[in-house]
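ingest -> validate -> predict -> emit
validate: passed (alphabet ok, no gaps, 188 aa)
predict: started
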Amino acid sequence: MKMVFLYGPPAVGKLTVAKELSNLTGFRFFINHQASDPVRSILDFENDPTTFRRISNDVKNLILEKAVDMNLPGLIMTFCYSRPDSDYNLRDTMGLLKRKGGVETYFSQLDCIDEELFKRVQDPSRKMYSVKKLSNVKELKEAMSKFGFREKIPYVQSLYVDTTNMSPRETAEAIAKYHHFPPYSNSP
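emit:
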């Protein structure tokens, strides 16, 4: 199985690119909010971030483990990387995938200029999902300042893609080409 990690700051377009990459490759996609939102219904991140992260990671890993067991051709996962907060969970996930065997991992870091992030974070589409996404510039600036979402993961090789002037489709095509993902037979 090919495990594709798309990471970058909020509003950079990870979910939209994941959908396009899924269309190109036939890989399924899983956004980190799908693991954290159920946890958010009972725990408050701000009051107990360590427990929140641990339980969210456990939920995510259960899903990833099942995906590996199902022999999916590929899975795309999106998340925001924040060093050092994300390191334990990411290393735990990488260890799980290594123990399961037969999983190739691929990382792509998405970014764009601040002005574009500020425009994208206000897009009404961010409020369509049941997930809790940042949806205003003030929250985004605070999160960017607090968590440093633009850092590269230092212990993995990542493709860096500046999405400022690229469509989601162009970004997905660049990722697929760089990582040599075969095209999905039903892709347009």
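The first strand starts at residue 2 and ends at 7.
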